[in-house]
Protein: Cbb3-type cytochrome C oxidase subunit 3
Amino acid sequence: MDYHILREFADSWAALGMFAVFIGAVLFMFRPGSRKTHEDTASIPFRHDDKPACSGGCSGGCKDDGATL
Structure:
């Protein structure tokens, strides 16, 4: 293929296609009913704000045994 043909395609139809994908992603993000999903995802870092999550292997609460990873 000739460089000029590919360049013309990239300047017209490929740019239009990328713009359509961008608009689709924005519309998908702001769709009705997605608020709960976005709020749940945004609160992930704060889920164990009071205490760390226990891995389930300890019976009397999680204790730091001084082991390093």
User: Anything to note?
Assistant: The chain is about 50% helix and 0% strand. The CA atoms of residues 23 and 29 lie 10 Å apart. Helices lie at 3-29, 35-42. The two ends are 54 Å apart (CA to CA).
